[in-house]
Amino acid sequence: MATVVPARSYRNRIYRNYATKFQNSDTEFDFGASTRWGRAYDYYLRRWLPKDRQAPIVDLACGGGKLLHFFCQRGYTHVQGVDVSPEQVRLARQILPSVIEADILDFLEGQAGRFRLVTGLDIAEHFTKDEVLTFLDLCYRALEPGGRLILQTPNADTPWCGYHRYNDLTHELCFQHNSLTNLMRTCGFSEIEHREVGPVPWGYSVSSSLRFMVWWLIRFGLRIYNLAETGTMGSGTFTRVFLIAGVRR
Fold first, then answer.
1. Residue pLDDT, tens place only, 50-66
2. Residue 245 and residue 36: Cα distance in Å, rounded?
3. Residue 175: DSSP 8-state
4. What is the pTM of this model?
5. CA separation (Å) from 64 to 9, 21, 153, 236?
6. 3-state helix, strand, coil in the chain (%, to 5)
7. Whole-angstrom Cα distance, residue 154 to residue 25?
8. Cβ distance 15 to 85 under 8 Å?
9. Please, what sign has the CA dihedral across residues 152, 153, 156, 162?
């Protein structure tokens, strides 16, 4: 008789060594690389972050800790990180010793109304359909009224969709802005916005500004393609990953 394997068992094996086997991470946190990464996220996350530097924030599936480092560098003092991978937690604890090793769905169960901001970069795609609805419900519940959820996930609208969808065995889903917007609305979120994660147009580097101009032309061509096929130019969100944010009413 065939043995029934629990749904999450493959994750347990992969996440055990996720940093070194799947993320090619070192055992020491790279502060310089994280700082450079963070400068781009100043642009990507513009107007979405709390003005109050004492606002309670949690980064779900915090990985090696780059977003935690980002928040700490910008003066946020009540930041929490959670990740299921022991290797990633060891890295992230070089930034915040209080990072919790836990399944984020289990962690969220006891956090009603606790946070002003909940972030989850590159996590929604790791859930099954049932799990992603549970995840969004729990994120909504964990926010205080007026609090914001920010997610980053691979983009099903990009011509390179398959690259990020299939470069990790633990990816279960792929979204585009409309599908994730509708899911977030279903779970109660409002004021939903989505953004590309591409070249930063100004303030980062000359190279990034030049790449942005080339990217603008490519994006315009893709929108013309949409117009020719469907009669509409579409959203214009074509980067390999995108960000989306919503607010708890």
1. 999 999 999 999 999 99
2. 23
3. B
4. 0.94
5. 22, 13, 17, 31
6. 40, 20, 40
7. 20
8. yes
9. positive
